[in-house]
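Schema walkthrough. Field components (list of strings):
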Amino acid sequence: MMQNAPVNALSKAVRVGLIAEIEAALNNANVKVIVISSQLGLFSGGADISEFSSGNLQPNLPEVLDLIENANKPVVAVLNGPAFGGGLELALACHYRISFADNKVGLPEVNLGILPGAGGTQRLPRLTGVAQALDMIVSGKPVKAAALNGVFDLIVDDPAKLMSESQAFVAQLINDGCEIKRVKDIEIDTETAPSELFSQYRQGIAKQARGFFSPERCIQAVEAAVTLPLKDGLQKEAELFMECMRSPQARAQQHFFFAEKAAGHVSDYDKSTPVRDIKSVGIIGAGTMGGGIAMNFANAGIPVVMLELKAEALEKGLGVIRRNYENSAKKGKLSQQDLEDRMALLHGTTEYSGLADVDLVIEAVFEKMDVKKQVFTQLDAICKKGAILASNTSTLDINEIADCTSRPEDVIGLHFFSPANVMKLLEVVKGEKTSADVIKTSMQLAKKIRKVAVLVGVCFGFVGNRMIEPYGREANRMMLEGADPEHVDRVIYDFGLPMGPFTMGDMAGLDIGYFVRQSRKEHIAHDPSYAVVADRLVKDGRAGLKVGKGVYLYEAGNRKPIPDPTVAQIAKEEAEKLGVKPRKHSDEEILERCIFTLINEGAHILEEGIAAKSSDIDVIYVYGYGFPVFRGGPMQYADEVGLDKVYAAMCKYRDELGEYGKAWFEPAPLLKRLAEQGKRFADFAK
Ligand code: 3HC
Ligand code: NAI
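Field assembly_structure (string):
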């Protein structure tokens, strides 16, 4: 029985223990059959990921599995709960496997930038067939045990009967003479795995696997299973495993695995902090964000009251939600019954009194402080004691909003990302007076609605939008200096983001950035070149995709950006007016100016304590902005590049770009300090 809380990771002690127990059982004449199972609620979460960086892997898992496979007594794995990665590989090396039908199993190593390295790529295809194994290994997605053909010798419908039925299975095995069935003896019928299977699979995943290193190695490992005997296949798997493990992507993705978990480790509360019960939610504003936010709660079975001042706006908002659900139903992602059930959880009101009894209100009205204040004053008057009052503002000061109520301790920012029903990120913004139980309730609620929450402090734009500002600023400045927008976009796309800054700007609407700049004139007044081309485009009626022209041109009904020479001409005119000299931009310069300035802002944010740790920023960027997970997030990327290099590049542009460089490229003190000390952002704790 394995017992290594919390997830039965197959750490060194477990491997040593398994070897000792198996050898003892093999040497004990009274033992006829060896059974491996777990005392925890899950079978095993796989190899201990935290050991990967230590290098202390002896005895390694393949050695343990080799001992099991070659044992001369039958070894039976009884999967009493989920088995992932090395956990499933352990079961595959056994001679028999038993599970219950709904149990979840999978090989998620690809999500860690590696591949199954303990025989999974060789044994799974032998048992379940190449096509299913290939998909499981390359996608990393878990499946139900009952859906995994050929792997289990016994599948029990009722989990409560797993142990009794397993005992009966073992008794029968002994009765039948203890036959040993080794996976290594199975030969794959090569006709089931023609080369087209692999080429088609490669084509099918090309888009989502763009930039990733390990999916291709996963495919190569499964290809080896088809052509090689198990021993040689395992050798090939080991080589590919090590190739992945040595790659920066493995470090980045493993960093991200722990970063995501660590985002939930918050020092503002502890186990004794109470949690408020959230049984119903009010949402103010049924626009783009309000509608998406409401869907999250309805999806989780929590009733919602939506408030708009005008009945038409309310009807419109609810109509958009219904259409969204209908689209999901058309794609087969939702049954008609689910659709109706979810809509039945959504109620509308045009009166504040309709919110008197809700446990949480999320405000998603126009981004104007006076409107927000009006809303919160009314909420303060109407909402019951103990209700949490939240704002979805993307930039405004939560403290100022809180202070217009008599209960600032109940006020918090819940910053969803658009589209709010899809994006996984939730920035939870704590105000100066927000109470610990409100923070804890918000963080836990996020899980319930399937979001990844990151706790941040108050500043303009919080973490995500504050850091995106220099990124966009540099893109715009380089356009002014003569860079082609498509060149800038291509470099960023190749780096791994879903799209470059200009495509993104056109999609969001150039007017949005314009209005933000208008409201922050005093912060940019010292730089007359700040986004001048974008400002001019907006003034010329080129607000982006929605009007068919922005930085790019668009054909009706098509989102493909078409480069427009007029924009280069506008940039040239504006540059001449301002005396900005044209500059040749290498790919490296584009990348550094966009990404390093974003990182530099992250360093300020860390030192100010707006983010508690650098990995929180990484989580925000991967889940909120599409930063490639194979780079681990911007701060991990900086750590990988080396902070000395990031610092040196900031200094270089500061010195090369004249007044502009002096205004925007001063390295953050924290970046300078860590670079000089040879440290990483990950080392920094406030
Ligand atoms: N190694 C080390 N730590 C692990 C771990 C692992 N494989 N899996 C989970 N943990 C840690 C988490 O970091 C978390 O730590 P924390 O409490 O400090 O935050 C703790 O265990 C609990 O994890 P969860 O909160 O995720 O627990 P859940 O019960 O929600 O989920 C799980 C359990 C489904 C097993 C989930 O943790 C999971 O998916 N783990 C990773 C599975 C995985 O990727 N396995 C492959 C490992 S690589 C491998 O096996 C290589 C092999 O091929 C050689
Ligand atoms: P929107 O304009 O689509 O929706 C706002 C809705 O609020 C409208 O339906 C309007 O009728 C309603 N409204 C305005 N004043 C009201 C009041 N006093 N009482 C009740 N309803 C009122 O705006 P959107 O995009 O949904 O933004 C809402 C908030 O979410 C803003 O604070 C914005 O900054 C924030 N946000 C927006 C994101 C986006 O990408 N659109 C992303 C994250 C946050």
